[in-house]
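Anyone up for a design puzzle?
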């Protein structure tokens, strides 16, 4: 996005601020869909709502014909509110309360069983058709905190010791109808081999369900995980992502003798590059070891650097060059609240605007009120026009649901 536009948006709406390029979100949706042209079976794309849950963004994605992957009653509500059809929504959390399950059954969305105990809860809630989230034990070679299908992972029904197979059998005995299987091996993956390995294991499992339990699935959901370039990594494209699945799915379908749909759940790829965080420089502080740019945001706004050691490109709005090396320091009382380390930037002064790039995924959706900092506002730019899509929280909002008691 153009620096002069960013400056005028920050001037109007203040900082810290999330600014999204809506046209880029649409472009990424189209690119993802196009990559699957000629795929051996019918496909469905369920955007992972957790990546960015803002309603205006969800609506853009829904308009592109996507479904939604949700992990809570709140995300389900957001997806329904944004217009996603219940049959295009899949619920994939590893830990659902009975109320969560009731809400999913009532909304008539697709639900995944993550452990055998959920079978009874679904049955009690009056559910009938179910999918099963399995753990195929695949190393996605990504950050450990976003690896979700290792043998020690909390997610899914493991193939090991026939846990997944026995859960499907139990569900059938309980009168449920298995209609899908699901996996998600991790996030920000830039290597085809893990996706291909997972695809092969999923297809083999579907073959086993057909042979031993005579189950014909409506869909196999392979999850999301397509990574994006944050620094200077080699790009992994949607075409490579689709290609990683293509032959494993085609071969599996031959063995199966029927063709279940293939579902995918991209999150990060759709929204990451479209988002920028704008923060204002409070001051520049020189210590014996470093020069810190103290900004008016922190990991309460963008947690990825603190949580995953994530790298985000940063720049100074309206300035170019590489005159000084700085750390961009957040305003939270935590040593770990550093948004970017050792960055060569033009000379920074109080009042400058820092832009933190590729912040559209797992940015606002992971923001918090730590240190009693209100949540930032969000602006969506589409066709060159800026729209406020979320008002900034106020300090007063922080107290709204708290109760003080005079007798305490
Ligand atoms: C079940 C599930 N599906 C899809 C995704 C989206 O992954 P990504 O944003 O890497 O595409 C996630 C995120 O971790 C997930 O947990």
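Challenge accepted. My sequence:
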């Amino acid at each position: 996005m153009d620096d002069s536009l960013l400056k005028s948006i920050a001037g109007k709406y203040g900082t810290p601020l999330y600014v999204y390029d809506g046209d880029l979100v649409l472009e990424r949706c189209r690119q993802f869909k196009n990559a699957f042209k000629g795929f051996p079976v019918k496909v469905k794309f369920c955007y992972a709502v957790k990546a960015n849950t803002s309603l205006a963004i969800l609506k853009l994605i829904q308009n592109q014909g996507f479904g939604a992957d949700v992990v809570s009653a709140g995300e389900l509500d957001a997806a329904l509110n944004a217009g996603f059809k219940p049959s295009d929504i899949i619920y994939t959390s590893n830990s659902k309360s009975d109320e969560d399950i009731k809400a999913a059954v009532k909304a008539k969305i697709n639900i995944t069983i993550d452990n055998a105990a959920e079978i009874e809860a679904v049955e009690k809630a009056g559910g009938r058709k179910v999918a099963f989230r399995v753990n195929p034990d695949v190393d996605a070679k990504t950050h450990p905190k976003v690896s979700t299908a290792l043998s020690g992972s909390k997610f899914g029904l493991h193939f090991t010791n026939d846990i997944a197979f026995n859960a499907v059998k139990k569900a059938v005995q309980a009168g449920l109808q298995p209609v899908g299987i699901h996996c998600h091996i991790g996030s920000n993956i830039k290597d085809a081999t893990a996706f291909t390995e997972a695809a092969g294991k999923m297809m083999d499992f579907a073959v086993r369900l057909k042979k031993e339990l005579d189950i014909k699935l409506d869909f196999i959901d392979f999850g999301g995980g397509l990574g994006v370039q944050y620094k200077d990594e080699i790009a992994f494209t949607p075409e490579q992502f689709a290609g990683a699945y293509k032959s494993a799915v085609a071969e599996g379908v031959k063995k199966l003798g029927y063709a279940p749909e293939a579902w995918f759940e991209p999150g990060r790829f759709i929204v990451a590059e479209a988002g920028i965080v704008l923060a204002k420089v409070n001051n520049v502080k020189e210590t014996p070891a470093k020069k810190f740019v103290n900004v008016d945001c922190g990991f309460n706004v963008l947690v990825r650097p603190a949580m995953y050691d994530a790298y985000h490109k940063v720049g100074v709005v309206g300035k170019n060059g590489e005159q000084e090396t700085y750390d961009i320091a957040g305003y939270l009382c935590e040593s770990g609240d550093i948004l970017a380390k050792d960055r060569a930037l033009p000379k920074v002064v109080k009042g400058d605007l820092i832009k933190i790039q590729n912040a559209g995924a797992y940015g606002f959706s992971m923001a918090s009120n730590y240190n009693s900092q209100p949540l930032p506002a969000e602006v969506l730019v589409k066709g060159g026009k800026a729209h406020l899509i979320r008002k900034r929280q106020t300090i007063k909002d922080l107290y709204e649901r708290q109760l003080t008691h005079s007798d305490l």
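A detail worth pointing out: Residues 48, 50-51, 69, 92, 184, 187-188, 223-226, 265-269 surround pyridoxal-5'-phosphate (CB under 6 Å).
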